[in-house]
Structure formats: C-alpha cells, structure tokens
Design brief:
Elements: E1 23-26, E2 29-32, H1 36-46, E3 53-54, H2 55-61, H3 68-76, E4 89-90, H4 103-114, E5 119-120, E6 123-124, H5 126-129
Parallel strand pairs: 3-4
Antiparallel strand pairs: 1-2, 5-6
Helix pairs in contact: 2-3
C-alpha cells in the first residue's frame, strides 16, 4: 500500500537513513556498539601478563577519555571469580589503589608478583612495566 500522507507507514515500510545513537548500519544490518563496560573488558583482556596499565590508560584505550574513575567503578563491579586480569590495573603513580589491609590488595599484589611484576613499597615502576600497545 502506498503512503498517501494520510496514515503512518507500517513498521515494514519504515526505512532509516541514519543510525540511532549507539548503532551502526552495516549492509542494512543494525549492529549495537559495545557498552562502556564491554569496551573496558576488551582493553583489560588485551593487557599482557607481566605488564600493568593505569585506570586512565584503560579509559583512553576504551575510547572513554577522562573516565578513569568510571573504569575503577566498572572494575569494582566485576563478577567474583572473573577471568579478566583486573590485577594489572594500577593508579597513575603505579600503586595499587585498594586499602593495604584488604584481601583484594593482597590478592592483587600476589598476582602481579606471580606474573613477574616487581613492587617496591607497593609501587610498580611504570617505566619498566607499563604496557604500551
């Protein structure tokens, strides 16, 4: 049925020239962009063993500039037992951001040491261990 301007077109008749924010049209198939969390997870999964990144670096690599705190919140909400190498993220000074007396601090420190990352006074040398993709 042709649209004579008197009725709204049926869903099958609607065609979009421009994607809605957060979508990309590729070969007329709408693909959703990864969420902020998924972008952070992808960056984190790429960090090699024996290296570290900063929260701000993860944010930049994920396409989320100036979102270091958001990265921290995302990492703080990772599911228990995750396979993602969260221990490889440190603050801009190279320090573990967790309270030193917390079990998570001890876990992060032990995992980094198992990977060959050296901590002096609970600080990682970013010159030596910072990952630069």
């Amino acid at each position: 049925m042709k649209n004579n301007g008197l009725h709204k077109p049926a869903k099958e008749e609607i065609s979009r020239e421009e994607p809605i924010l957060g979508e990309t049209i590729l070969d007329e198939t709408i693909l959703e962009q990864p969420s902020r969390e998924e972008k952070v997870y992808m960056v984190l999964a790429a960090v090699p063993s024996g290296t570290v990144v900063t929260y701000g670096q993860v944010a930049e690599l994920a396409g989320l500039p100036r979102a270091a705190r958001m990265v921290g919140r995302i990492l703080g909400n990772l599911p228990k037992g995750t396979a993602l190498p969260w221990q490889r993220v440190v603050n801009t000074a190279g320090k573990i951001s967790l309270p030193e007396d917390s079990p998570s601090f001890k876990t992060q420190k032990a995992r980094l040491q198992e990977e060959g990352v050296v901590l002096n006074s609970n600080r990682v040398s970013l010159k030596k261990f910072n990952w630069q993709p």
